[in-house]
Amino acid sequence: MKKEVWFGLSIMALVVIGVFWMMPPPSQMTNGHLGLLMLAMIVVTIMLGFPTAFTLMGMGTMFTFFFYRSQEPATAVVRTLDLMVHRAYAVMNNDVLIAVPLFVFMGYLVERANLIEKLFKGLHLATSRIPGSLAVATIVTCAVFATATGIIGAVVTLMGLLAFPAMLKAGYNVRLAAGAVTAGGTLGILIPPSVLLILYGATAGVSVVKLYAGAFFPGLILAGMYIGSVIVYAKLKPSGAPALSEEDRRVPIPEFQQIITKAWSANVLAGLIGALKGRRNAAVPLRTLVSHLFIALLPALAAALMMGAIFLSITAPDIAVPEGLVPMGSEFYQEQEEERYGGGLQEPPRDEAPMEPPAGTSPDTLAEPLQAPDEETSALSGQRKPAPAGFWITLGIVTAGLAIFYVIFTFVRLEIFKMLLGSFFPLAMLILGVLGTIILGLATPTEAAAMGSFGGFVLAAAYRQLNVRMIKESVYLTAKTSAMVCWLFVGSSIFAAAFALLGGQEIINTWVISLDLTPVQFMLLAQVIIFLLGWPLEWTEIIVIFMPIFLPLLAHFNIDPLFFGLLVALNLQTAFLSPPVAMAAFYLKGVAPSYVTLNQIFLGMLPFMAIQVIMVALLYLFPAIGLWLPAQVYN
Question: CA Rg, the chain, in Å?
Answer without folding.
Answer: 30
